[in-house]
Amino acid sequence: PTHGLAHPGSWQFLWPGYFSLLCAVALTFERFTHDALLREYPKSDFFRMSMARSDYWAELRALPQAKHYEEMLKSTEDELRWLAIFIGDMHQPLHWLLGTHEYGRNISVQSQGQAVSLFDYWETHLPQQFQQHDFTGAARKEKYKLEHFRQFKEHPHQMFAHWGQELAQVACDIYGDLPQEAADSRIELSEAVREKWGKLYESLVLRGGERLAQAMKELLAHRKHADGHRHGRGHVHRNSAKHLFHNLLLAVPTVLGWLWLLRWHFNGGMQAAKEHLKM
Length: 279
Prior knowledge:
- GO terms for molecular function: endonuclease activity; hydrolase activity, acting on ester bonds; metal ion binding; nucleic acid binding.
- The chain is mainly alpha-helical.
- The chain has helices spanning 21-30, 35-38, 50-61, 64-72, 76-88, 118-129, 135-142, 156-176, 191-230, 240-266, 269-277, and strands at residues 108-111, 114-117, 187-188.
- The protein has 11 helices and 3 strands.
- Helix 1 packs across helix 5 and helix 1 (21-30) packs antiparallel against helix 8 (156-176).
- The longest helix has 40 residues, at 191-230.
- Residues 1-19 and 46-51 have low confidence and may be disordered.
């Protein structure tokens, strides 16, 4: 169900010759990252070797779709705008699964006498239904745990892969709500399905907004880190406690050794040693 997303275990973002929405998110976010901060994330098998990552990006950029996408990015503002669009697009799960139904375009559904494709139902009908919806109130009612207060605990591309796989599974569940003959005939959506999809759409909009805020906060951390690095200033690292422990392991024996050496020198040093050895 995760066509065009990461292969489990290998963290590759494309099938051969296929450029996915996830590829675009990862490729665009990469433009704003700082290498020194990227090294702070736990390493996956894919991102462990810098050469492997370089070869991967070269392969990705060689795809015709990727070249066409990069031609659209004329400025930093374009890059940031498209990144926000792509991550915010997580409220549309069908966009994240090509499958055999062309994102739902090949499936015809009927809702309250109106016949549309499954793709258009999610793309147009549901957004219009929620046009005046109080999403802020819904977030308070559901007591959402705001993810944008959290830092990424994994490499950004791995986070995007997790999100993409999650949305692809949601798309599979949407197809699963339809009868088996959905690909061959027009399907009348029941009230139960419409209500279920409405609640799902609301939760996806809230989740997409939170993840957009989380990604923008992470991007801002990379920018601050790069500015500080450029001006020779240190910046708070996400693994400060770990680095402090490593530094203590190095500092304690070093400091004790220097103190012993200074004490030895203060007590006469080499001359005292010669007298002790009666040389």
